[in-house]
Specification:
Blueprint: E1 9-20, E2 23-34, E3 41-54, E4 57-68, H1 70-77, H2 81-84, E5 97-110, E6 115-126, H3 128-132, E7 140-150
Antiparallel strand pairs: 1-2, 2-3, 3-4, 4-5, 5-6, 6-7
Amino acid sequence: MPDISYGASLGVHLEYDTLLGPAPLSTLVRLRQRSGSQRGALADIRLELGVYGKDTLGLQTYLQATWANQRAFMSDFGVAPEYAVHINTSAYLPAAGVRDLVLGLAGKIDLNRKWMVVSAIERRQLRGAAANSPIAEQSNSNILTLGTLYRF
């Protein structure tokens, strides 16, 4: 199987913020083309609902679906015929569709006006062609993220 090199993506991020009662509700759509001629394009739709906010602490839940075009699916989950014989499987040429669903909880703590600590815990589930890929070891994963941010 070929290595997938690191890359970047360029695209559009659209966001709409409103309130659901006292809770902030955000809807966002991201469309992005990944670098490299074979990496393909992805689209995300995400709903975020604030569940707690006071002074320097904030928590939100989110649900996200990611769609991949055929080239992105092939790059991430496909098995070209020339590689299939080397890993003792049949070729797998997925079509475009929903790649994964994510359910998460994210939080932030403002340390001061410039610095904050951010964290998220999420459950990611591969869907459709991604879940059926012979190179997908598991269709569900749990992810914990912890980081710091600096405001300019």
